[in-house]
Amino acid sequence: MNIIPYSNKTLKGLYDISGVEVGQHFYWQIGGFQTHAQVLITSWVVITILLGSVVIAVRNPQTISTDGQNFFEYVLEFIRDLSKTQIGEEYGPWVPFIGTMFLFIFVSNWSGALLPWKIIELPHGELAAPTNDINTTAALALLMSATYFYAGLSKKGLSYFEKYIKPTLILLPINILEDFTKPLSLSFRLFGNILADELVIVVLVSLVPLVIPIPVMFLGLFTSGIQALIFATLATPYIGESMEGHH
């Protein structure tokens, strides 16, 4: 049996699959790198919304809190409680990071549920929520992995790596793989759900633009919020786990 041609054919098939794109992308050439411009544009919109909301709500704190101040205080308390529950007593330094991740994902998801980005026509490509692109969710996963290792190394130093050979050296490959598959599974789950939600809304807006999309958009808001909560809820224990050194 001639295995080599078959293997080459399989590799070529995998390469062809890797080139498949979901939707049309608008590219910018920055130096020697080609970037998805639509992701940068919508990410800047989300960041502007977050920064603008925070500035408006807390620029003049009141003794008797305003509605905006109450909302952000509630969000802060929620993130603090989540971090304390999942990480433990050393949760304090991680609240800004967890809060930033949660709010960015939450607002990104909601932007895709509220705004049918794809109906905004560009010369080449189409707009979408930042979390609709696998590059964004993969970047979040890599950031989570870097934070995971940083938390463990800052707490335990090089002895942190001893966990990979516990309880036995045989588990070394599995323990290493586990540290990368957990955040990657979060990224694919987030990407798949947001992509599916936006596609459903765009199709319904195109077919029945007035009535049917409204309840679907409300459902999209709910599921988008749940996805942000799931990402934060599952990502936070990874930090606590790396600091404690148990699985």
From TrEMBL:
<feature type="transmembrane region" description="Helical">
    <location>
        <begin position="94"/>
        <end position="114"/>
    </location>
</feature>
<feature type="transmembrane region" description="Helical">
    <location>
        <begin position="134"/>
        <end position="153"/>
    </location>
</feature>
<dbReference type="GO" id="GO:0045259">
    <property type="term" value="C:proton-transporting ATP synthase complex"/>
</dbReference>
<dbReference type="GO" id="GO:0009536">
    <property type="term" value="C:plastid"/>
</dbReference>
<keyword id="KW-0066">ATP synthesis</keyword>
<feature type="transmembrane region" description="Helical">
    <location>
        <begin position="190"/>
        <end position="212"/>
    </location>
</feature>
<keyword id="KW-0138">CF(0)</keyword>
<keyword id="KW-0406">Ion transport</keyword>
<keyword id="KW-0812">Transmembrane</keyword>
<keyword id="KW-0375">Hydrogen ion transport</keyword>
<dbReference type="InterPro" id="IPR023011">
    <property type="entry name" value="ATP_synth_F0_asu_AS"/>
</dbReference>
<keyword id="KW-1133">Transmembrane helix</keyword>
<dbReference type="GO" id="GO:0015986">
    <property type="term" value="P:proton motive force-driven ATP synthesis"/>
</dbReference>
<comment type="similarity">
    <text>Belongs to the ATPase A chain family.</text>
</comment>
<protein>
    <recommendedName>
        <fullName>ATP synthase subunit a, chloroplastic</fullName>
    </recommendedName>
</protein>
<dbReference type="InterPro" id="IPR000568">
    <property type="entry name" value="ATP_synth_F0_asu"/>
</dbReference>
<keyword id="KW-0813">Transport</keyword>
<dbReference type="GO" id="GO:0015078">
    <property type="term" value="F:proton transmembrane transporter activity"/>
</dbReference>
<feature type="transmembrane region" description="Helical">
    <location>
        <begin position="37"/>
        <end position="58"/>
    </location>
</feature>
<dbReference type="InterPro" id="IPR045082">
    <property type="entry name" value="ATP_syn_F0_a_bact/chloroplast"/>
</dbReference>
<keyword id="KW-0472">Membrane</keyword>
<dbReference type="Pfam" id="PF00119">
    <property type="entry name" value="ATP-synt_A"/>
</dbReference>
<dbReference type="InterPro" id="IPR035908">
    <property type="entry name" value="F0_ATP_A_sf"/>
</dbReference>
